[in-house]
């Protein structure tokens, strides 16, 4: 029996129902079937547990929004499916997020702020991927503009779902948002891009993310060997930019790096950028 997983499940239920501050460590331990002392074997504080729940929720949203999870649909239907998956995840966890944003405004807690920043970066990359897959390379000059508009629309609807507790028909809403983006894309070349031309190339994004991860290894408590992490990153970089990259080797190194939980968010972003880069190569 994995008490850590049970603890996360029970804490999510209690935080969603009672609120974070109204739920005690003793109550969390009792509901899970462990002692209060055993709680601290898994987490050093109630706040650490909350951050872990938030991180796992975000990983699930990112996973559901990934291109790999959208087998079947093509074109605009691909975008509709991704939006629907995202909104379903927000709806599923809205009670938890209601408590989170009420009790812990992201800008007032550094740990939560860091997790939210990782999440935003992951979702932006995911949205870039699906827009290119849905509408083709013609959207590239406008990509940042379109992503900004899409995420602004999604943000307002998510807040309506979470805070106003509206019962929303998710498939209909996803179709509405997707149709709106498609209509905009069909006529967007009549104007000049505002943000798009300042976007980094995929190669630049790759190099930047690799350097970010290397820096983080010196600032983070790691479970994997730091030297092996750096070697894996070096080999990934070498393989990606070789004349005949071996995809199975890159996948193997990514799989190894994903075992380091403290870097998981960044590794997943790196994986997405690599996939986009390989599709264009």
Please provide a written account of the structure.
The chain has 281 residues and is an all-alpha fold. The chain folds into three domains: 3-44, Homeodomain-like (Arc Repressor Mutant, subunit A); 58-199; 201-281, no CATH class. 72% of the residues lie in helices and 0% in strands. It has 13 helices and no strands. It has helices at 3-18, 25-32, 36-42, 46-64, 76-92, 94-103, 110-135, 143-163, 170-187, 202-217, 226-240, 247-257, 264-280. α5 (76-92) runs antiparallel to α7 and α7 (110-135) packs parallel to α13. The longest helix is centred in the middle third of the chain and has 26 residues, at 110-135. The protein is globular.
Provide a short characterization of the protein structure:
The protein is mainly alpha-helical.
Shape: globular
In angstroms, what is the radius of gyration? 20 Å
By DSSP (H or I, 4+ residues per run), the number of helices equals: 13
Tally of extended strands?
0
> Could you give the order of the helices and strands?
HHHHHHHHHHHHH
**Main structural class:** mainly alpha
Mean pLDDT: 85
**What is the straight-line distance between the termini?**
46 Å
Jot down its keywords:
13 helices; 3 domains; 281 residues; Arc Repressor Mutant, subunit A
Layout of helices and strands, plus pairs?
Elements: H1 3-18, H2 25-32, H3 36-42, H4 46-64, H5 76-92, H6 94-103, H7 110-135, H8 143-163, H9 170-187, H10 202-217, H11 226-240, H12 247-257, H13 264-280
Helix pairs in contact: 1-2, 1-6, 4-5, 4-7, 5-7, 5-8, 5-9, 7-8, 7-13, 8-9, 10-11, 10-13, 11-12
